[in-house]
Amino acid sequence: MKLSHFFHIILILSCLGVSHSLFGKKKKFQILKFEECSDYPNLNMRVIEFKNHAYSKKNRTMEVTLQVDKDITEDMWVTTNLWKCDLSGAPDTCEFYVKDLKIDKLCAKIPQKNQAWTSMVESFRPEFSCPLKKGKYASEPVIDETPFRFFPLPMGLWKTKAFIYEGDDKIFCLDFHAKIYEVREN
Question: In whole angstroms, what is the distance from residue 141 CA to residue 61 CA?
């Protein structure tokens, strides 16, 4: 596919997303699962607590606590897979959306500003920075769903399985599920 065709598709999808908001529908984003992978229970970094908090429609946070069992160097990288399912989440409705995406130099990306992860990283106590030290890291970031209203992601249940590596060693596995759906605006 030519790059110009790709940009045309993105533009059309963006317009479709905006037209939905113009016709009285609003995209909503809901985190359903944020936990360590059950098939990798003994890695050096784990999610030990996750909670969603909804104080009001516009004030939502999530609470995440990570346990890091050993000091981790700056040689971290990520691979991730992303599936899109219908809103039921039934396995037979899921299809690969992104397969084996690799992100190198994770430590250079963690402190970046104005990114999807910035709110979470900045709210960690103690500070979440490389190299990571052994210990517990707690975060309660504000969930801002504004980007999902206009970003051309289709409705559905989105499932992600991500692995963090230190060199060649797998140190973390995350199962993340989120639902994107529409509601009528009043």
Answer: 6
